[in-house]
Amino acid sequence: MFALRAIAVSLATFAVVYCASSLAVYFGWSRIRRWARQLPMRRLADLLFAVRTLPFILAAMVTAVFAVPSFLLLEPRGIDEPLGAIPLALGLCGAAIGVYGAANALSGIARASRMIASWSDRAKRFPCAADAPFDVPILRIEPVAPAMTAAGIIHPIIMVSGAAESLLAAGELQTALNHELAHVRRWDNLKKLLLRCVAFPRMSGLETAWLEATEMAADDAAVSSPSEALDLAAALIKLSRLATVETHLDLTCALVPRPASNLNARVERLLSWSEARQVRTKSFSLWYGLAAALGTAAICAVTYSQLLVHVHTATEWLVR
User: Where are the alpha helices (DSSP H) in 75-157?
Assistant: First the structure.
């Protein structure tokens, strides 16, 4: 009975923190985006992804670091106290969040695996694959769609349709491949998988904003001169006209996603490309992060026992 109550209290705590922080993110992310509008697209994409995954990380940390230890250390084992309807319902809600997230991720992996297998059927090695950094295989596929996409997480590959290869000039093809390689280097498919694990209603606006920032960040990483920017803009326009119907997969990064909602904005950014966009902003020092982490850990170490008492009081109120 003690173990079951511990599990129920832990899941209930997770559900409360996760839902409360998700609602805070839902109502506040647009303000954060406006505040960070001047950031480079790479930084903006990282910030939006961090904001989107913050509720899950925060709920998991509060549950593992505070709720579980406070219950195990301070809850009397000899008390046979039944669970009320509210903590039981919250515990079931926490379990449902975890089960739904896992099922959502597994279904996405299964669907992507089937489609990638069908696309790569009779695929051939692309001639320039030997020169690709990180030894990312580049395959020429027979289907017209997807025209060009980065697929896979642990073993990523880039797929290029024969139609896209014949349509693009050499410079356009190279910059398009650089765009897909940028997605691979930034582990964007893994991030998409993680977003499926932390699903929450009405978060599509934040996730769409992250996807748009991610595409623009890959555009910026793919070009280093005005001529390359023009080549990538031309590739986007040509490939957007190549196929009117294309199967959309969450766990792949197509050069021209469907629906291509921000295609015009991407082309305009590339046409107005300047060297100032290539200037690296001052990177965040790892020493600052380490100092902040050590300071936080020191504060928690000093006040941890008192925090456990307060958390246990809160969970006791929750159980009753």
Answer: 85-119
